[in-house]
Amino acid sequence: LSSDVKLSWTLDHMDQNFMSVLKHTMFQPTVSCPLTLTPSETVVTFGDPVSVNCSTSATDVEGMGWEAPFGGTGFEPPPVVTWRVDKLEEWTPSPFCYATLDDGSQCTLRPVITIFKTPDFVSISVLDHSLIMQDTEYNNSTRTQYWLQCNIINVAPVQFLTVNWYKNNESIMAMSFNDTTTKTPVNESSILKINISREENVAEFRCEAELDFGPHGPKLYVSSQTHNVSWTPSPFCYVTLVDGSQCTVSPVITCTNRQCKKYILLNELLISKTII
């Protein structure tokens, strides 16, 4: 054969081999990892014990085991191997189960583990009562305005936290958090703007930290003590005229110090719910 014919035959043969390999790669079914985790998702209190079983019913598994910073196992025969920790004190344990098949290939499977801690305590404070409290006229009805802050101390993970506000045991506001990266305990707060009318005189407020882990975990609540807030009239001077009528005048109080100005800025920028 001439060199041109040989080259043509070689290229055709290579094309056929390439298409055969490509067809084999594209159309062969993908073999899934023959492992089952029980449970596949779990929610655990920090410091509590935890265990997850990894099992297989496949007949081509040579051995299996758990890899983890703690609680890992050696290479064991199927069908079941267990990851177990008596006292889980790691916020991101990240264990995974692996299986080695008869052909030498390996596959892995990871459980979803959420470690949580309830707040040490939940409390309500008034943001500088003397500076925040204001008297405002609403439809000729005087109301006293306050800013209340709910303090949630040492809670994790914050992505599952919701702060609920209650006025006289009626739900009035809920605030959730979007931080999905922080797994360790944090301190959080929620601020509520309220108005107490002269007719109400006194109202009871409390806030509640709620941890909701959905179908794979508990729903937990830690509540603050009740905080009473009362209507407080502004100082005013009145005069009774000889005809029995009265007139009043209130002083104008000007805020000059830095702390007061800070709270005025907070009043302008903070997005919160006003209780009318």
Defining traits:
276 residues, mainly beta, Immunoglobulin-like, 3 domains, five-stranded mixed beta sheet, five-stranded antiparallel beta sheet, 3 helices
Overview of this structure, please?
There is one protein chain. The chain has three helices and 20 strands. With 276 residues, it is mainly beta. The protein folds into three domains: 1-27; 31-115, Immunoglobulins (Immunoglobulin-like, Sandwich), CATH 2.60.40; 121-234, Sandwich (Immunoglobulin-like), CATH 2.60.40.10. The radius of gyration is 33 Å and the shape is rod-shaped. The model is unreliable at 13-30, 130-140 and 252-276 (pLDDT under 50).
Percent helix: 10-25%
Shape: rod-shaped
Could you give the count of β-strands?
Answer: 20
Q: CATH superfamily name of the largest domain?
A: Immunoglobulins
Strand content: 35-45%
Biggest sheet statistics: 5 strands, mixed
Total domain units: 3
Assigned CATH class of the largest domain: Mainly Beta
> Low-confidence parts lasting 5 or more residues at pLDDT below 50?
13-30, 130-140, 252-276
Total DSSP helices: 3
Question: What is the overall pLDDT average?
Answer: 79
Per CATH, the architecture of the largest domain is: Sandwich
